Amino acid sequence: MSSAEVPDYVSVEEYLATEERALSKSEYIDGWARAMTGATNRHNRIVLNCLVKLSNLLEGKPCQPFNSDTKLKIDQATRKRYYYPDAQVVCQKSDPLSVYQEHPVLVIEVLSPSTRRYDLDEKKEAYLSIPSLEGYLILEQHQPIASILRRTPEGWVKNVIEGIEHSIDLAFIGCELPMQDIYRGVEFTETCVQEPDPQYEHL
């Protein structure tokens, strides 16, 4: 990597101050900021479906969902991160004027060609290090396929759910998330890839 390709170091304070006045969002990864790209209509439809259903299922309960405008802060000895997950569920009260959450029990990401590598590698590793997290839900957008990693006494266990007729067990927040509600209004393709991205299949 040449010196021209090395990103400038940004402190947490500088990042948060910049985000307050920025017209677009960026995530913070251990000293550097990564600009976020826009999402497809299909992607946003799935995220909205999840938030609407979770809001209904969790009404009157201490847990509540937050959308992708809410940062997720990870502050550990080896990680200083601020992410914008597609959705997260938090059961601990936080400062209503804060711009981030720190104690999610569930994080949801909808995979896209431009973000798939991060969601399945960098972000997964970071999310699973959060002490409060009980589940990481990863959703394909072109077919009704969901992967969920759940915390167990033996460690993280992954389950894959395929098919619109199934539901995702979220016992740690006392509900199930039906696949038909997640993908309501979504038209599927023959494969899991539609957007043109020659590297997608290799990620």
Keywords for this entry:
203 residues, alpha+beta, tt1808, chain A, 6-stranded mixed beta sheet, 5-stranded mixed beta sheet, 13 strands, globular, disordered N terminus, disordered C terminus
Detailed description of the structure:
- The protein is α+β, with helices and mostly antiparallel strands and 203 residues long.
- It has a single domain, classed as Alpha-Beta Complex (tt1808, chain A).
- The chain is built from four helices and 13 strands.
- The strands form three sheets. It has a six-stranded mixed beta sheet, with helices on both faces.
- The longest helix has 17 residues, at 41-57.
Percent of residues in β-strands: 25-35%
Averaging pLDDT over every residue, what do you get? 90
Query: Which structural class fits the helix and strand makeup?
Result: alpha+beta
The low-confidence runs, each spanning 5 or more residues with pLDDT under 50, are 1-5, 196-203
So how many helices?
4
Give a summary of the structure in a few sentences.
The protein is built from 4 helices and 13 strands. The protein has helices at about 10-20, 40-55, 115-125, 180; strands at about 25-30, 30-35, 65, 70-75, 80-85, 85-90, 100, 105-110, 135-140, 145-150, 155-160, 165-170, 175-180. Strand 12 and strand 13 (about 175-180) form a beta hairpin.
